[in-house]
């Protein structure tokens, strides 16, 4: 059974950091492009960061550039999202997603991904 499980969310103060993890079971991540999306209450889902199958290419939405870093560890079937300088606008449920795309492709559109995790809540507040 294909499953993606996110972890690492929580409550953090503005300016703080969190590291999200997403681990796959039932399949290997090495053949997939990977991404993190988020959805805040009352808002549409937003692509946050993606990393290509090769690992050589990454893509970020403008609001997180310079603050978030996506990485992957194929041996552990895990994708990470390191988040720094968090602000209340980062509050959302964060989801990982995988899609079959080869080489250096990295995208942030939800329709480009095939499997999704259940999400982990990130809350940035005093």
What does this structure look like?
This protein is mostly beta strands. Helix content is 0%, strand content 47%. The chain contains no helices and eleven strands. It has strands spanning 3-7, 10-12, 18-25, 33-39, 46-51, 58-60, 68-73, 78-83, 92-99, 115-116, 120-124. The strands form two sheets. Strands 2, 4, 5, 6, 9, 10 and 11 form a seven-stranded mixed β-sheet that branches. It is globular, with a radius of gyration of 13 Å. The mean pLDDT is 95.
Give the topology.
Elements: E1 3-7, E2 10-12, E3 18-25, E4 33-39, E5 46-51, E6 58-60, E7 68-73, E8 78-83, E9 92-99, E10 115-116, E11 120-124
Parallel strand pairs: 2-11
Antiparallel strand pairs: 1-3, 3-8, 4-5, 4-9, 5-6, 7-8, 9-10, 9-11
Q: In percent, how helical is the residue content?
A: under 10%
Low-confidence stretches: none
* Helix segment tally: 0
Radius of gyration: 13 Å
Which class of secondary structure composition applies to the elements? mainly beta
**Number of distinct beta strands:** 11
Strand composition percent? over 45%
Largest sheet: 7 strands, mixed
Q: What's this, in brief?
A:
The protein has no helices and 11 strands.
